[in-house]
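Troubleshooting: if your tokenizer reports a length mismatch, compare your output against this known-good record of 240 residues.
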Amino acid sequence: MKNELMETNNTGYLALQDFDLANVMSAEMDGLSTTFERIKIPSGGGIMFEIPGDDPDEPETVKEFSAVILYQHSLNAYYKSEYQGGSNPPDCGSFDGHNGEGTPGGNCDTCPLNQYGSGKNGAKACKNRRRLYLLREGEIFPMILSLPTGSLKVFTRYLMRVIPKYKTSNAVVTRFTLKKTSSNTGINYSQAQFSVERALSPEEYQLISAMTEQVKALSKNVGYDAEDTLNIDPETGEII
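Known-good structure output:
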């Protein structure tokens, strides 16, 4: 028990007690677009994440990593013309997966562009993803992981295991890995996998909860990026 307490007291998440994300973002990035570094999932069935490091041209490649899911939400993006890159907003976008803003806008659940068959190869014209704000132990700035379509069912099942036991997804440290899987047509793609590494201590959870509220507020100003607009079709395995 003594060793377990020592391990908990030395955790990197307790460093958040001396850090205020909202104040830092306001002071250091005043007048700049709100943004966070992106963790990337490879295409083609690769099993190595790309995590940004000090050199933007040489990201760290890892088979797995652990982090707290501070906040997560649906992200829909429809571009009338093919996406050209950058953080330009889509013609119609939604940060909750239900209410679209732009053209055509309105109810995402009944929108014809959010139905299979409206886009290329029988996929949706509107790209559905899940944006996760993650905080790794020992760090103070969140990173974003944008889950593609092919990982959403796995993530849903993970939440259904976590929430009944821990109440919220930000109450645990989640381990992230990748699995090479294939579509019905034999095309390989990378699918994210999730497991609980450990529960947060009460002290950690209090600090994480405060940061979660700050991230929620900041998330409304985080623009779209390439990882938010690309989809892996779960049936064909193609980037669409």
